[in-house]
Amino acid sequence: MDATQVLVVAKEPVPGRVKTRLCPPLSPAEAASVAAAALADTLDAVARCGAGRRILVLDGRPGPWLPPGFEVIPQVRGPLGVRLAAAWSHAGGPGVQIGMDTPQLTPSLLDEALGLLTGDGAVLGPAADGGWWALGLGRWRPGVFDGVPMSTARTGDRQARRLRSLGLAVTSLPVLRDVDTAADAVAVAASAPDTRTAAVVRSLLTVAR
Fold it and tell me: Residues 13, 65: contact at Cβ < 8 Å?
């Protein structure tokens, strides 16, 4: 069996707790429906990639969007960096960690990331907003997230610098756009028109076809 793994760090898509930056123009329930579709698309891509182990690190409870074949572990309490470190400590490595904000992700892109993993290297997928959408490690090293500000326009750059400070060679993946705002949702839906996310966004927002 392939020894690599993919960790998906996600929240249960509950209205008022997810995708709040979509409100307005969307209602909390509509924003949650976008989140549920994005999570389902993400998990489907992970299910179809070549990883030997699939882990959902979940804040909340599993729902009908969860396909078979996933190990579900709860997120610990604390800041995002603490939660990510705990997930990696559980998983070990080699692996790639993603979130639920890039439903345009494909199994082939995940396989590419997994194929780049080495013991002394890291893989980082920059996000268009300055963050990152994927982080891959050949093995877990404590301190990977120390001093990295989360959810800012500098997060991706600071994360890359932190990885290099630990002696890791960083390989970049393609830039992807997170679904945070209504403009993001429309752009991602247009770029990945066959996804569940695109179908939901088209029902709620105007998407160029």
Answer: yes
